[in-house]
Structure of DUF4148 domain-containing protein:
Amino acid sequence: MTVRKPLALSLIALAIAAPGLASASALYHPAGGEVGMTTHPDHVQSNMSRGDVLRSVDVARKDGTLAILSRGGALPVKATGGSKTREQVQQEYLNMSAAEKQRIQELYGSGG
């Protein structure tokens, strides 16, 4: 009984401290109060050279993303695949089995 209590307390303390130890190399560290975090740029280790950074800034300047980001805008998402026409979607729905249509009805509701 006397050994279990100190062992349990030390395991609990380790479990509480483990996430804080893992974030030692992060940019942000938790802090009490209203702020909630502190910034430590010197803790981040970058594997990019200065030349790589300058090249990526040059590319962003040429394609317009630098201007968008500097104004706080969100970058547009590029389309990844071809889209279907309305007729293709309607034909796909008409070719579905009754069980598939029922499943879609359960997932998305009646739509009205």
